[in-house]
Amino acid sequence: VLENQDLQDSIKPQKVEFHSLNFNTTLHWQPGWAREARDALYFVQYKVYGQTTWQNKDECWGISSRVCDLTHETSDIQEPYYSRVRAALAGVYSNWSLSCRFTPWRETMIGPPMVTVVHSNKSIIVKLQAPRSPYKRKRGSNIPMTNYYELLYQVFIINNFLDEQHRVLVYEGKEKVIKIQDLRPGVSYCIVAKMYMPMLDHSSAYSSRQCTVL
């Protein structure tokens, strides 16, 4: 029995954490500390905070992977959720390892916007598109993240002639098309953008660079 108890403890999953980007939400965990724990199978359950019964996540029941997609199960974005994972090896089951409480609306990371750049004479026109959630409208298109939060676009210009690293904020607001004027011909400019959420004071990562020479 003692050996079983040792095995139980040594295969128990560690660091059970939610990761979420634009409401695409996955649960991640680490194997137990025993070397053989790498061969364990995992079982995932979830529930809304305050509920008494745990739900099995069927697609993550007896899996060898250490990631489980819970996007669909956490779609009520204002609700707080918990998840838990246990491991099994050689007929022995570990105790459950519990995640921290996770509220999608508060804790999902916002991704950067999509940026398209068109240049005319001495100006650059920047077209911005907010990231989209995995949740769909009735017509089938994915709902943009701007439906869930007040989000502002932040647009930065990098004048490659001066300095690669020096980003200047040229616009902050909700417009999806902006024009940056009075630029110098023959100079290479790059544009990057972020989403900014004033209410929670969160920023996304920078978008990928879009560069053009006037």
TrEMBL record:
Gene that specifies this protein: Il22ra2
Q: According to its UniProt record, where is this protein located?
A: Secreted
Would you identify the family this protein belongs to, as annotated? Belongs to the type II cytokine receptor family.
Provide any one GO MF term from the record: cytokine receptor activity
The entry's protein name is Interleukin-22 receptor subunit alpha-2
Q: Where is each Interferon/interleukin receptor domain found?
A: 108-212
Fibronectin type-III domain boundaries: 6-96
* Keyword Secreted listed: yes
Identify the InterPro entries for this entry.
FN3_dom, FN3_sf, Ig-like_fold, Interferon/interleukin_rcp_dom, Type-II_Cytokine-TF_Rcpt
What's its job? Receptor for IL22. Binds to IL22, prevents interaction with the functional IL-22R complex and blocks the activity of IL22 (in vitro). May play an important role as an IL22 antagonist in the regulation of inflammatory responses.
Q: Which GO terms describe its cellular component?
A: extracellular region; plasma membrane
Query: Gene3D superfamilies in the record, alphabetically?
Result: Immunoglobulins
Entry keyword set: Disulfide bond, Receptor, Repeat, Secreted, Signal
- According to its UniProt record, where is this protein mainly located? secreted
